[in-house]
Amino acid sequence: MLYLYLIILLNKNIRMDLINNxxxxxxxxxxxxxxxFGSPVYIYNVEKIISQYNKMKNAFxxxxxxxxxxxxxxxxxxxxxxxxxxxxxxxxVSIQEVKLALDAGFRPEDILxxxxxxxxxxxxxxxxxxxxxxxxNIEILEYFGTFHNSVPICIxxxxxxxxxxxxxxxxxxxxxxxxxxxHQIPLVKRLVETLKININGIHMHTGSDILDIDVFMQxxxxxxxxxxxxxxxxxxxxxxxxxxxxxxxxxxxDIELFGSEMSAKFNEFTKIYGKELILMFEPGKFMVSEAGxxxxxxxxxxxxxxxxxxxxxxxxxxxxxxxxxxxxxNIINVSNPTGRPKIYTVVGYICETDTFGWNRxxxxxxxxxxLGFYNAGAYGxxxxxxxxxxxxxxxxxxxxxxxxxxxxxxVYDDILRNQIIVDIDIA
Length: 427
Ligand SMILES: *Cc1c(COP(=O)(O)O)cnc(C)c1O
Fold this sequence. Notes:
This protein is α/β, with parallel strands linked by helices.
């Protein structure tokens, strides 16, 4: 037991740990989790979340740093409470996420609400909650100036950065719907001065999976230039886009290198600006992606003329990223870690193309085996649906050697909820 514990400590929750031919998540046998909570099931290793949070926090050396967890990656209240206890702030993209954060115990001033394409009514609601508001539209800026010019606001800048050949990082480009263009800053300034709007933060978020930290550095130069135009700032928020590993030999954002380069640059800037500012980030994926695993059961093995399919008790209704973004999730056979590796295409039960992974080398799979998906913490459960009238899976949280259910698996009543049965007479 001690031996096992030591290995787990050494391996500290990097992946599922393989010990004596059993897979463990945070020192709990993965098969025991399925036996207790059923399949399919999402599992979150809180120790990994804590280590990611601390890794990021420790990477920076600035007088004031604030990490706002981007809740949209995973908003289960039990997970939000972990972030609140860690001292994290919260980045919300909808009023419902604002409410969830408040329910989890975040103080309104630790919540940054970054809406896009929402109604004035929703923004009014956010004002009434007293959260920080991030505006990415000139029209709404004018509205603030007219009706709420005492409420401090942050403006989301679109820096028009498009870095080499990766379409994933292009939400900051010229045709993007996000942000206020840097070319509109003269107009923003005119409005701010005329309507006496209180701009206390500037923000950018250029997209996801940014590999090249030079992209951030380049964006930092742009944001610092803009910051000089606004003398009352309290914070500068560089958004997110930190990349995590999906495969063992994958690249991930070098957060230590980024932290040291960015800190130096930021400290230099605040000297020029003449005031201490808060350096902010809002990571989602970086915080929770690798902490999450999705366990499923194999319903059937089907050999066709060209392919061996492993069909599982789930589909893109539970994990849409492979079909939606062409994302890669490593898939392992939890039940048979020593089986001879064979090539499988892993598919779901949805009645249209529903493939989780093509031509994957996985230890020999038998009907009834449990498969495990990696990187299931971010945008996994959150993007699940009831398509094909299936139930959403359960969610389980692991901390300190204990597995706790944090969301029940749905049942038939959940499918019926809110339906109003109107039984018309057809003439
Ligand atoms: C989605 C989003 C994030 C988080 O992005 P990740 O890639 O998950 O880190 C941060 N800020 C805003 C405004 C977002 O829309």
